[in-house]
Amino acid sequence: MTKKAVVTGGCGFIGSNLIKLLLAENFFVINIDKINYSSNSLNLKNIRNSKNYKFFKKNINNQNFLKKILIKYKPSVLFNLAAETHVDRSIDNPESFIKNNTIGVFNVLESIKFYLKKSTTKFKMIHVSTDEVFGDIKKNKKSKETDGYNPSSPYSATKAGGDHLIKSYVRTYNLPIIITNSCNNYGPGQFPEKLIPKIIYNIINNKVIPIYGKGINRREWIHVIDNCKALIKIYKKGKIGESYNIGSGTILTNLQITKNILKIYKRSFGSIGKKVKIKFVKDRPGHDLLYSLNSSKIRKKIDWKPKFTFSAGILNTIEWYLKNSEFYNLKQKKHFLKRLGLSK
């Protein structure tokens, strides 16, 4: 019997890559996405007509709709990826992050609580959170699943709020949920306001590459396919009520990221334009210096480890953007070019 999976936020970067992997494993996938600025129809252009795929343009805050979908399709898993994710945008407009990242989680939880009272289907929810909930950490430290939350931005605070709600519903209502906290994802199909696709876009288009502050902020990076495979494996083998960190162990400063991408691009695709230079710009408020995860739990308990090296992952990512130039030419373009400092 074909297993059914609901993916919220499935037209986004991680969600769309997850859906493709689920379809490859013969899941019937129900994608629920409200389609905002970072959603992209190109991410799923090759599966729209799949007999095992169904899309609904809806917001997760529509609790009645969620309940109807769960009752109708009786999924065995719900992957919750619907979220506002960009720190800069959360500083400019925190209200939308509260609505989607915290209140949205509440509505998903209430819908699942309702569904479990009506269904006998064996079910889990996998909630996709972030390493940013742990906040700025000290040099050489790695955040463990048991560490306290210390968010620094409206984005990370609203994600932390969603995580806390989930933990309370697991304990109070015995809901079958697992939380994942992953490090920075990169790879094909990522919206170009994020660091790595922004760098690639500027190289392709012969533009200056803006880097916050002095470029010393350090992040852990994982290819999106490695992250999505971890999510599926956690669904299959993870323990209800637990949290799992998903990290690669690859920790680089923003300046190192930029220089690595420039090096890989020159080595694999030839020379770059004369205007492609690093430009340090004013740092954003409350910019954390370091996020890093202790991922020993998932490696030991779930028997998972990443497959992509950073160099191979970046090469794969650059190749995708070069082959999918139309990704940058959708109507969203006018909304993000000015923000990225790319407008003429």
How would you explain this protein's 3D organization?
The chain is of the alpha/beta class and about 350 residues long. The protein has a domain at about 5-185 and about 225-250 and about 285-305: Rossmann fold (3-Layer(aba) Sandwich). It is about 40% helix and about 15% strand. The chain has 11 helices and 12 strands. It has helices at about 15-25, 65-75, 85-90, 95-120, 155-175, 195-205, 225-235, 255-270, 295-300, 310-325, 335, and strands at about 5-10, 30, 55, 75-80, 125-130, 175-180, 185, 210, 220-225, 245, 250-255, 280. A 7-stranded parallel β-sheet has the order 3-2-1-4-5-6-10, with helices on both faces. β1, α1 and β2 form a beta-alpha-beta unit. α8 crosses α10 (about 310-325). It is globular. The termini are far apart. Mean pLDDT is about 90; it is low at about 330-344.
Topology:
Blueprint: E1 4-8, H1 13-24, E2 28-32, E3 53-56, H2 63-73, E4 77-80, H3 87-92, H4 94-118, E5 124-130, H5 154-173, E6 177-182, E7 184-186, H6 195-204, E8 209-212, E9 218-223, H7 224-237, E10 243-246, E11 251-253, H8 254-269, E12 278-281, H9 296-301, H10 310-323, H11 333-336
Parallel strand pairs: 1-2, 1-4, 2-3, 4-5, 5-6, 6-10, 7-9, 8-12
Antiparallel strand pairs: 9-11
Helix pairs in contact: 1-7, 2-4, 4-5, 6-8, 6-10, 8-10
